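As a warm-up, study this chain.
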Amino acid sequence: MQATMDHDSSIRVFAKHLLAPSIIQQACIGHWTQSQHKHIDVVLGKGTYLALHRLNIEDTDHDTQPAGSLELVHEQPVFGTIKDIQSLAFRFEEEEEKGHSGKGKGKEGEERAISDVPRLGYLPKDASPTVLVVTSDSGLLSFVTFHSQGERGYFHILKEVEIAEPGLDYAQVGAKLAIDPSSQLIAVSALQNHIKLVVLRRTPRSRFDPVEKISKIDVNGTIIDMEFLTPDPADKDENAMLAVLFHNKETSAYHLATFCIDLKTILTGPLSVKVGTSQLGTNPLGSVLHIKALPNFPYSLVYIDEEKITLVTVENSSSLSTKGRTTHAHHTSLSLLKREPEGDDITPGSGSYPLISACATPPPSPYPTHSQALYMGSDTGELYRVNINYAPYSMNFEMISGERPVGKVMHVVARRQIAALPQEHDDDQDMDHPEEIILNTDFLIYSGEQGDGGVLAIKEEETQIDLFAIAHLQNCAPTLDFCMREPSMPGRDTLYVCTGMKTQGAIRKIRSGISVESSGSSGNQFFAGATGLWGIKAQATEEVDTFLVVSFIQSTKVMQSGEDGLEDVSASCGLDLNVATIAAGRLNDGMLFQVHRAGIVVASPSTGTRYEMASNDAIFTLAHWVKDSTLILAQNIGGVSSLLLVEFKGPSAQMEEHALAPEFQVLARRTLDAEPTTLHCWQEVGSGSSSYYCSVGTLEPSVLFFHILGNTLHDVYSESLAQAGRESATIPHSICVLQNPEHHRKVLVGLRDGNIISYDWTLTSDAISGSIRSARKMANPRLFKLGVMPVKFIHSCQESISRALVVSDRLWQASYVRDFEVHPVLFDSEVSQACSFQTSEIESSQGSFVFIVDHHDMQLASLDKMEKYNCQSLPLGQTPRRILDISSKRLLFVACVGDGFPFAESTLKLVDPSRASNDSPDHVVAEFRLKSGEAVYSLAEWKIPRPGKSDAVYICVGTGQFSPTGSELSAAAPRTGRLVVLSIKQSKKQDRKNRKFELDLRWAMTMSAPVFAISPFMDMKLLISNGPMLKLLVLDLEKKTLVERAAYRERWPIFQISTQGSMICTGSRRESISFYEHRVIQNSDTHVEKIVFLKSAPSARMVSDCLAVSPEFAVGADLSGGVFGVGYSKDDSNCQHSLVDRFSFHVGEVAHKIRLARTWPAEERSFAGIALSQQADENGGGFNMSQGTHATTATALVSSPSSLLLLSSSSQLSGMSALNLWIVRPWVSSDILAAAPNFKKKSTIEDVGTAAAMEIDHKPSTTIPTHPELSQQQPRPLPSTQALVASTVTGGLIGFWRLDQDIFQILSTLQESLQRLDDCRPVLGNQHSRYRSLSSPAHATVDGDLLVRFLALSHGQQVETVERSVGLVRLVDEWIESRGLCGLGEFSCLWKHDHEQQDKQRRPTHGFLANVSKTKEEDVCRSVHVITFILEFLQMLDWHQ
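Now compare it with the structure written out below.
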């Protein structure tokens, strides 16, 4: 069905960053966070974001490899563009302590606690004395600090000083910062001519105002670099020396200027400055790139040009008169090391010098030294250390690495020094008293301009330098294109992003989930056909597993863990090896058990002792360990199933084999009405005693629960799994019980159809004693659709577990730590069998496992923590420019640009992500080279229907041809182009990993202009842009060629095409977005196709991408940093002649590409699970479940609008399906939305129950009255939270969601209030509304990056903010009333609660909305809770559902 959109202009949008920019442009260090371990805080500037990382360095001796970690603490948008960052250590004035400790009751206590939070003009006494100094496009010099609040923290503004006009003008100061080592001066430079000196004074923390005055100095040229030099200790901080590297256009030369500033008089009089200049370099064509002060040498620096590094010292300035000039002494230069030339023609002196991109020096040494280390990195991968000696002056190179391209950031964040004795002595040296040598380990952080950066440890040895990688800094910039893969099953959504350049070019595979550390392939196929795995501990108290039992169809193998890995001990273990094993494990310490179809085996691996129990006429089908020496088994005799509780009373493992005969005793027997399918036992520890329970899944289908009490099996409960209206069977395949730290339990039932049903286990004390109550023991069922293969739970054999691995057609992890969650495990290979297996080599809080991968390969794997955006790199070795997801074949098609002269060569690569490897290019399965000088501008997948067969898939490639013009080469723009059509050929091998692919050329059409855009159209048609021409091409099957049917010419080249039905949307760099319509004019015998112009946007935008959302609405991104939507309505008088802006929003980063996520039924792909209602049967003991009906008991989950609860945790959004229509709306109204219930603005729903009827502590239920309209309504699918996603050049991702109009009014009113609040205003001083309107006036959009700050405010601050927002309480009340949310119980105001309790209870006790507020104070509090709930829901939204 053709997508449509509401015919109104009320497009309201919520925007937020999904992924912060990853490019690193600045770095500085300090100490802002509190930690028990030694650490260093690193602040990174990422364009529009500030990021705080904590570098933890482990304490190691010199003989141990350096180790550490880098963890992200906080990322915060600054609503502007960062120019430079430096850290400044302040010396504060002493002041008397005032105020209180911050503890108290009510509002007064909260106000006192706020004094611990930094704010404008105030720095708390316990805050770090290190302050960030930042310049940005706001034109302000900002003093910023970081404040931690538990797990959260934020950057706070302390002081703002106006130093320039807002913007990015090169003539305005702010481009570079330098700070005097004595912390008395800040130098702020423009890109050209001007430098401002900010004089600092000592200031009290309570009145933070450090700026005394601002002076100005000028240089005549473009400022390249700027540094304060290290002062001479003899000067006692009397002078500051500023060195400036600049290029003078008149002399066409680089110059070094030094300004010696008298610090004794800077606070009392005018600045006294002594100036010295000198020209640098002897090669007029060479560029001087950097200057760097040397911390160990007073008034010394080096400058680095394209060929060499030169040491410069400045003569002692203290001996000069006030009007004197400083002089520069240029010492011997050291030539850079040339790179080896590539190719066979190597001549002496050939090769090229590396381009040094960054340099860094370690901090000053506390030991007396006459040497200085300098690190230099190049963008082509060279990393050097230069050793500079002071007396006499000398320099020498040491090559550290040749494979780490370095960007513009390099910083030595820490140095660890150790005094060691030399291993070898000179003949003249005293052997009894050898002189110690100082060995250093430097921790170096660096950025990657075109790829990833990281943290390195550079360790000095006596005879060499060792390099160790400590941490990884991911950089997805530059990002030129991306695609979204959204399968119908949940947990498989993936973003593929084109990142990096040249050798660092790669495809980044971005997913959310739990990453896996795998040992890799075992290299053999010994485990082919494995049907079961069990990891076994020899002793109950051991932390690691000793044995691994592997079952096959007709045999069993036993492996033992040792120093050399797993060793086959099958021959000596004592178990039956010629049968398939049903269950195996530790029976008691030293004894193993094995259950097979014909009996039980108990054996001691250490002594070989073996005991057996035959099943006689029965067949054992299932077994599970209960406790030491006790098993429970399921057996079948003549079609009758029963449970056996068996105890082994034989000798222990330490006794002799002939001491006693084995004794197996059947303690209890219980006949079952249906054949069992799964068996699970667990232990519940109470006050001084333990209880054991057994759960049995049957083919009925149902789940039975028994209490193992002594020698009996007591019936506890039964739960029917029959579900009306479900196509697949709900037969249980496995059962697991999870327990959280509060001792609440979840029963998980894994089904054969790949789904999970979770229940709250609410066993009462009466059941423990053996009696059965009619009260429900399993409540609140939720269905999780995970896969298509039977579900099996894998977990350790502990008394209580909170996590379990879920094995289906892919891996998941179910966890119940705070709330119940199910997360995908990011392991792409198929796992047929798995078991928990703990080893001493792997330490993982999430557990380690043994996997049988691809049905034959064994791997040892450990799980990591949940990661929101896990990134895996698929290296390409070239710059990826365009990417296309060929979903029908599960392949990626990538257009890459390599090196070449005079033009770069383009290569088309076919990538199979399932073969992803960081070490080898196996994922590139086919290549196709284009002509020399041919660049790729567009890609499209074209599907041609074939009767009786699957669609033929073609790949259309639009190119531009750079060609010579006369004797010169035109590299500015392509002159001609081609439309290239390819098909994919593949071998018919069943194993996908060994399948071969080939790209086959089908058609190639030469065009008079570049083909900038391609879009498949209806009925085997193609739309292409041939320069400014929009052309319609049709596939002629008879002639097997493409024929032009229609065309339309614009004034400027068309760079983007998107279609919706017969509507065509185009985007250009001059005329913004235009709408066209495809029409067919039918004549008597023939028909003529035309492209008819409809409307265009009146304002010019440089469109980088556009997307037709509906026939009357399109969204676009422009190169000025904005995302916008334009459209028209036939009923709107304002849209008669042109398109009208529906929304616009300045992102601040250049959004290159924009994509629209698919609209799925929320029930199909929701990680929150699907609510299943429970209804009592006639006997009251069993319950049936039906999906999608409205609940009639208190245990019903809130899938209907009348029963939406504001729960105490955002992860308990059980009413998420309804919220999709109440808070967010899909961009596209499709069949799914058309089938959704039509919720009216004014509901007639009466009271739907009291708090007692809806309480969540599982008290006995009562009936909840429902409205007749709801009870008669049939279940219908609800739409997903459909996102519009934009990628930015700097590596960020931004999401846009369409809001309900009432929600937009609430959030827009709140946003206006937050813009005036000091705690929420942009940290670098930009006015929020001005910043979001830089590319075009902000319209119909609320900023999630700002609104989320409301959640960080204390409850009192939230109440004050809402009270000051005119009309906000009224808007919230109207929204509650219009959605029928009144009457859900009593409401308690939190205003009178202690401040210490407010952060813990940010919502009402039971999370319900009040029908009638008792006071105005409670009315405001209710609005606060509703807004908090809405914002937390919006904060959870991701690009996928």
